[in-house]
Amino acid sequence: MPGLLAALVTLAFAGYLLLTRGEAAEQRASLLEQDLLWQKQAIEQQVAIDRDAVHGLAATLSGSDYRSPIFQARVLSLLQTSPEVVGLSVQDRAGHIEWHATQAAWALPYRGEPGWGEVWVSHGQPRVIYAAQTADRRRVLVMVLALDRLLQQQVPWWIAQRYQITLYGADNTPLASKFQRQLDPAGVIGHIALNEPPVGLTLKAEVYQTPTNPVTETLPWIVFALALAMLASTWALGRMMRVREEAEARLRSETALRNAMEDSLVTGLRAMDKHGRVLYVNRAFCEMVGYSAEELIGQHPPMPYWPPEELERCEAVFDAILAGRLDRNGFSTRFMRRNGERFDVHVYASKLIDGNGQHIGWMGSMYDVTELRREREALQASHERFVTVMNGLDAAVAVSDAQSGELLMSNQQFDRAFGLPDWRGRCCVVPFVPRRAEPPIDAEWYDGYRQHWYQIKSRQSVWVDGTAVWLEIASDITALKGAAERERRQNEALQQTARLISMGEMASSLAHELNQPLGAITSYASGCRNILAAPVPNLAQLDQAIDKMGEQAKRAGQIIRGIREFVQRRAPHRKRCDIGTLLDTVLGLLGHEIVRRGVDVSIAQAGELPPLYADAVMLEQVIFNLIKNALEAMDATPAEQRQLAITLTRIDGNLRVAIADRGTGIAPEQLEQLFKPFFTTKDSGMGMGLNICRSIIEHHHGRLWAEANPGGGCRFIFTVPFAEETEAHEP
């Protein structure tokens, strides 16, 4: 009965202490939560006021109005009412500062999108930038907000006397704090995330230590301790009676647990005395060698599980253990199962100490490493095959750490290409091209030292230890670059040859074109002589005849100049040109041919077309070849059906030129082969004209293709972009 009463008193008093402390803790936690929510609202409200003020300034700012007195007054008002604003500047979209408030100490370039920037710390002072776009969208108004000043201004005195308020960044780094007294190490701590500014800030409040009366604190615990002592004294006698029984139960339990642990191990355990006689083996060891514990206990060397061919090796390991020559890395040897199967083991040995601290023998643990050794050998062989393949590649391959740039692996081609010695040790490599995760990088890089071109493939990957790495493959394309340059030169020579061949075919037409102005000049010269031979020369007629002679001479000069420019070999020269002028020039050169063949030429133009930015001579060559091919395609067409239709239209910023004839047409399977080198449908010809035309159009970022003409014959279509800039220039 006394023990029961003591237990009830102790329980009642303990419940009273727990309830009292629980209520006090709940009240303190509730008050902390309310104060923290209030403080969050105050800070977010002030940040929202500063943000709205910047938006208001940006909305009224256009051009260079930031020098106006009204704007300056509004800025000064903002800086005075909001001490946390330590920087205010006007910048363009490239981050150049055009103006900043002289009252503020910070004016930093900002190149991001409008809105909040990231938090940074400079000289121990946390800062964050907010950018607002002006009304004309050409500038941004950048505000620098000091988080430490914001915390100092917005935390009132009554909050600061209760808690230490700390502002943490997104990476849980303390940025600013306001406190007055020492903290209670066991105080209550509260966290709350700030929604404004949206940069991952967290507000933390830690409760200050409150002074308490030591007597008041310790007296309940003294009473509680006395109650426990009274309760313990009543139980002492019964406890002493149960000590022996509990000790025996624990001993049985520990013995059973030890046996269960030893039997559940996959590691073989073997205990020997100082003379090498086996004292104990566990179940795993018995299963490993195929003998029972009764058969092994008491055995002396040689052991039955020692293979005859490994007898000397096993005896050497056994003698080393008995002599105390223990290796912390263990011993490797080979055992034999009862059925004769051999297996590799790794043996670790240590001293066997009894309960009195005496050395009574040796304890050994055995691990079956047969599969591990096979896997290691397979892994080594796989690694050797991998290294052989990597070294056999013609491309230079390297793997470097994404953070430090340390070279983790490279093949022989990489070492040879960039002069890395075998004894280099640890080193870092410079990336070939700027790295980015997405999308993967495929670029060309020029080695100015060795004068080689490389095709670079850079990919981000994960290394064997889980770290991020960059895999870079550099293929030497110097020979390909040289071949491309030779091909370009050959194409230029073919273009020149094609122009010369075209001019050779035009010789008769050009002679006819030149005979007309030269014959007219001769006629006008004879007329002038007749006028001068008259008794009274008609000077007006003489002047008119001389003007006509000059016009015909200019016409002949234009024809000769056009021929010279057409056949002249030169580099492409882009400039503003008009498609109508180019078309007139080509039709003028082919005028005699058109008349001779009796072809009706029609030109359809959809509205006013802007100028082109192209090489006029090259485009004249394309138009010349296409029209000339169309004329030749209608040789077998009846004279009344020989029609050449030229259509000029504008489609999505491009000029579309369609040249349609009424010839025999081209088979569908030959349409795409027309543009291959040396393919021709003519009885005589090189087969390079259309290939050169397509190269010229693609050089101008356009397309050239052929299709069947709905009215019969074939239609060649090409597109080239218009010149959109106000002043076209040679790049």
Write the layout of secondary structure elements.
Elements: H1 2-59, H2 69-81, E1 85-92, E2 97-100, E3 115-122, E4 125-133, E5 139-146, H3 147-154, H4 157-160, E6 163-168, E7 174-178, E8 189-193, E9 202-207, H5 214-264, E10 268-273, E11 278-281, H6 283-289, H7 293-296, H8 311-322, E12 331-336, E13 342-353, E14 359-368, H9 370-392, E15 396-401, E16 407-410, H10 412-417, E17 441-447, E18 452-462, E19 468-476, H11 478-505, H12 507-533, H13 539-567, E20 575-577, H14 579-589, H15 591-597, E21 600-605, E22 612-614, H16 616-633, E23 643-651, E24 654-660, H17 689-699, E25 703-708, E26 714-721
Parallel strand pairs: 21-23
Antiparallel strand pairs: 1-2, 1-5, 3-4, 4-5, 6-7, 6-9, 8-9, 10-11, 10-14, 12-13, 13-14, 15-16, 15-19, 17-18, 18-19, 20-22, 23-24, 24-26, 25-26
Helix pairs in contact: 1-5, 12-13, 14-15, 14-16, 16-17
Can you characterise this structure?
With 731 residues, the protein is an alpha+beta fold. Helices cover 43% and strands 24% of the residues. The chain contains 17 helices and 26 strands. The strands form six sheets. Strands 2-1-5-4-3 form a five-stranded antiparallel beta sheet. Strands 11-10-14-13-12 form a five-stranded antiparallel beta sheet. The protein has a five-stranded antiparallel beta sheet with strand order 16-15-19-18-17. A hairpin with a 5-residue loop joins strand 12 and strand 13. Helix 12 runs antiparallel to helix 13, helix 14 crosses helix 15 and helix 16 runs antiparallel to helix 17. The longest helix is centred in the first third of the chain and has 58 residues. The radius of gyration is 49 Å and the shape is flat.
